[in-house]
Amino acid sequence: MRIKIAVKLAVVLASCLLASGCWDRREINDVAFVLSMTVDLAEEGFRVGILVPLPGNMGGPSGGGGGSGGDQPYTFDSEVGKTLREAVEKMQNRSPRQLYFAHRRVILLGERLAERGIRDFLDSAVRMPENRLTTHLVVTKGEAYRTLNKDIKMERFSAEAIRELVQSDATIPVTVKDVLYQINTVGSDVRIPYMEVKDSKYQFTGIVIMSDGRMVGVAKGDVESGLRYLCGKFVPYSETLTVEDSVTSVKVMRGSRQVRPVISGDRIRFDVRIKSRGVIMEVINQGHSRIDEAKAGAALEAKIRSDVEKTLRYLQDHKSDAAGFGQVLNRFDPLNWETTWSKQWYSVFPQVEFHVSVDAEVDKAGMLWGNVAEQGD
Amino acid sequence: MEGVNQANDRRRGQARLSIDELKKVPLTGSIDDNRAYLEQLLSECSDAVIREFRIQSGPRALVVYIDGLAKTEAVDRTMQALMILEGGESDLERLIMTTLPVSQLNPTYNFGDLLANVLSGDTGLLVDGNASAMTMGYRDSEHRSVSEPETESVIRGPREGFTENLRTNTSMIRRKIRSPNLKMKPLIVGRETNTNIVVSYMDGIADPELVREVITRIESIRIDGVLETGYIEELIQDNGYSPFSQAQYTERPDTVAASLLEGRVAILVDGTPFVLLVPIVFWQWFQASEDYYERFMIGTLLRILRLIFFVVALTTPAIYIAVTTYHQEMIPTNLLLSIATSREPIPFPAVVEAMIMEVAFEALREAGIRLPRTVGQAVSILGALVVGQAAVQAGIVSAAMVIVVSLTGIASFTLPRFNGAISIRMLRFPLMILAAAFGLMGIVIGGLLILGHMAKLRSFGIPFLSPVSPLHVKDLKDVIYRAPWWNMRDRPRFLRGGDKRRFGRKVSDRMGKGKKPFRTTVKQGERDEN
C-alpha cells in the first residue's frame, strides 16, 4: 500500500520535472529588469535603448557584492541592429545579468519610426515571450533614446516619470493591447501620446494620429481637446472661457459621446452627440456679479463644438480614423460594412459628413462677493 | 490455600504477575494465607501498610492500604469502630450493614481486584473466615488545584482548566452538564500502570456506534503504561502516518462539555490535564471556545482571519521562493525593485536564504518553549528580532525574508489548536523544497497532495473535511461562519448523532425574530414550579 503511494508520488513529481524545474531558476540577483525600452530608426535597421535600474545603488542595506556604477540608480544602454532582437542580443552579450523585459512599463518610439510605421516594432514586441500587453506606448519628438537617458528630479527613473505622466490627465494613455486592436481592425486607427522634452522636463504636447499604422500628424491644442471626446476614452481637462465680462476656468470632469450613423443611399452622415459636465474652478470677475451657470455652460458648449469640429476636420484631412467611426458603422450595418465600405474606408471616410450637437453643463458657480439673499433668482 | 499454591506454582515459571493474572487468584478464608500472599506481593514496597487487628472479642482482621493514597485518619476511625464492636460479628456482609462508616465500598473476591483498588488508593479490609475483602474508598491523593488553563487562554469564558486528577476532571464536566444522560464509562489501560480512563459521552446524543468503536479501540490497547493522552491518541487513531492529528485535545471543561453536547466522545486519562475529543474535523482548527461566547459576527470574522493566516503560515515562504526565482513578472515593479535592492548583497539563492531563516526561527521558538516560562517568550521574540536584524545588517538574509518569516510565525500562532499549528509548521518545509524545484507549480502540486490526503483522512469514520466535503449544507452554520445561537437549532448532522435538535421548536421559532414579545403563559391550574 505504502509502496503504491510512493510510486504514485514519484510519478507525479517526475511529471513535474518535464514541465519546469530548477534549471529554469533565475535568482533576482542575476536579472536586469528593463524598466523601459526605446526604439528608433537607424541607418541599418533599428536602434534599441534600454533603461535598467541598479539595485546596488538604490539605497537599502549595504553589504556584499552588488552591481554599481557611479551613484546613479540606473544605467542606460543602446545598440543598433537589423532587427530589434539583434540589437537586444548584442546588449545581452555585454550585460552580466539577464535582460528581463516583463517589467517594461513604457516603450518610447522615435518620431521617424512612427512615421515609417509601427507594424514591424509591434511584431517584435509581441513575439518576445516576456511582453506585457499593458505596457504604455509613447511617441517622442526627435530620437527616443536621447529622451529616456535623463535625470529627473521627482522620480528615481525617467521611465517611472513618463509612466506617471501618461496615466495622469495630461494625455490619453494607450497600451500595446489597444494599439494591437486598433491596428488590426479596419475602421479604427492608432493614436499614441506625443511627448517632447522642454527645458529638461517631459511634457505631453499632443496625440499622434496614425493612418494604417503610420504617423500622419499630431493633434495639438483644440484638436486634442476634441479628440478627448471622440476617442471614447474621456480624460478630464481644463478649459478657460470668457463669459460676459469675466474669465473663468472650467474643469471638465465628465464627457461622453454617442455616435449614430445615418445612411442615405451611399452617403454617410454621423450624428455625434456629446455630453459634458464641468465645474467652475476660478472666476476672474470684473463686474462683481455672480457668474451665470447657464451662460458659462453655453460658452463651454460652443467651445467644445468648435473643438470637436476642428478635430473631425483634422482627422478627415489626414485620413486617420483615430476615433473609430468605421467600427461604429460596422456595428450599425455589418452587412454593408463587410461588402462595401470596409474595402475602401480610407477613401470613404474623408467624404463623410458630421452633425455635432453638444450638451454641456457647468455648475458650482458659487460667489465670494455680495449678499446671497439679494442674488436670489 | 489451593489458590495460593497455584499462584506459587505459577510464580516459579514466571517472575511477575500482572493485575489481570492475579484476578485468577481467589482470596481464601484464612487470614494468615491471605496476609502471607499479600506480603509477598507487596514485598519491598515501603509505602504499603498491612495492619492486623482483632475485631472486639471476635475474628482477626487486617487493613491494607498505600500510605499517601489513603486517608489515614479515616482508616483509623474505621479500625476504631471495628475494635470496639460488641458481639464479635465476623460476617463481612453484616459488618458492612451495621458498623462500617464508609459510603464507597466494593467487595472483592480475588487478589487482582483487591490490589487494583488498593493501588488506586482504596483501603482493603480482610476478615478471618471470609473469602472476600472489602475495599473502602478513603482516597486522599495530592494534586494541583484548579487553575487557569495554560494552553488555551481566553478573554471571555470560564477560567478553569483540568487538573491531573481524574475525579476532579470528571466532576468539572459533571458540574457543567447536570444530566443523567452524561455517561462516564470507566476503563483501565496499561499492564503496569493500570491507568484509569473514562470515556464520557451523552447518551442519546452521541452515536452509539461511535461510542462502541471508541471503547473497543481503547480496550484493545496492549501497552505497559499510559502516561498521557498522547499514548491513547496515537494508539486509537485511524491513520498513523498522517501529518495531521485525528483527535483534539483540550484543557478546558467548557470545550469538552460543548463537544459532548454536539455528540462527540471525550476520553479522560488519569494523571494528565488534557482530555481527548473524537472525532475531529479539519475546521475545528479554526474554532476557539471564545467564538461561541463573543458575538457571532466577531466569531465569524476571527475564523476568517484564522483561515487566511492558516494559508499564509503554510505557503508564504514557499511563495516567496517561487515568485522570486521563477515568476518575477508576478511582482509589482516597485516592490520587485525593493526586493532586488534588499537581495543585492545576499550571497545565497532564495531557497537557502529561506531555509536558514525558517530553521533559525523554529530553533528560537523551540528554545523559547524549553526555557523557564518567565524568560521564554521574551527571549524568543528578542532573539528573533536581534538575530533577524543582525543577519540583515550582515547581508546574510534580506529584509524581505525576515518579514516573510515573521509573518509566517505570527500566522502559525493564530490557530487555536496547537496540534493543527505544528502540522502546518511541519508541512511548510516540503512545500518550500517543492517551490524551489518547480516554482508555483510545485506549490500547487504540494497543496493538492495535502488536500487529497485530507479528503481521504478519517477520524473514527468521520471524513476529515466534513461538513464541507462531503457536503452537509445545514452544518455549514458552524464551520467558518459561526451562526448566531438562535439559528443553531440542530446539532451537527455529520456526527450521525441520535437527538438532532438543540432547541424545542416553539422556543426557537420565536427567538431572534423580535415579532412577538417573548412570553411564558401559565395555564389555569398550573403552578409556577420556580
Any idea what the radius of gyration of chain B is? 30 Å
N-to-C order of helices and strands of chain A: HEEEEHEEHHEHHHEEEHEEEHHHHE
Structural class of chain B: alpha+beta
- Greatest interface (CB-CB under 8 A), with counts per chain: A-B, 38 and 34 residues
Biggest beta sheet summary of chain B: 5 strands, antiparallel
**Helical segment count of chain A:** 12
In terms of DSSP E residues, the strand content of chain A is: 25-35%
Biggest β-sheet strands, sense, barrel of chain A: 8 strands, mixed
Kindly name the structural category of chain A.
alpha/beta
Number of strand segments of chain B: 12
Report how far apart the termini of chain A are: 91 Å
List the strand order in the largest sheet of chain A: 4-3-2-6-7-8-9-10
Helix content of chain A: 25-40%
Average pLDDT reading of chain A: 86
Mean pLDDT of chain B: 85
Secondary-structure element series of chain B: HHHEEHHEHEEHEEHHEHEEHHHHHHEEH
Defining key terms:
heterodimer; A: 377 residues; alpha/beta; eight-stranded mixed β-sheet; four-stranded mixed β-sheet; 12 helices; 32% helix; globular; B: 530 residues; alpha+beta; five-stranded antiparallel β-sheet; 17 helices; elongated; disordered C terminus
Describe what this molecule looks like in 3D.
The complex is a heterodimer of chains A (about 375) and B (about 525). Chain A has about 375 residues and is of the alpha/beta class. In chain A, about 30% of the residues lie in helices and about 30% in strands. Chain A is built from twelve helices and 14 strands. In chain A, the strands form three sheets. An eight-stranded mixed beta sheet of chain A has the order 4-3-2-6-7-8-9-10. Residues about 60-70 of chain A have low confidence and may be disordered. Chain B has 17 helices and twelve strands. Chain B has helices at about 1-15, 20, 30-40, 70-85, 90-100, 110-120, 165-175, 210-220, 230-235, 255-260, 295-325, 335-345, 350-370, 375-395, 400-415, 420-455, 505-510, and strands at about 50-55, 60-65, 105-110, 125, 135, 180-190, 195-200, 250, 265-270, 275-280, 460, 460-465. In chain B, helix 11 (about 295-325) packs across helix 13, helix 13 (about 350-370) packs antiparallel against helix 14 (about 375-395) and helix 13 (about 350-370) crosses helix 16 (about 420-455). The interface of A and B includes residues 17, 19, 55, 59 and 60 of A. Chain A: This is Ger(X)C family spore germination protein.
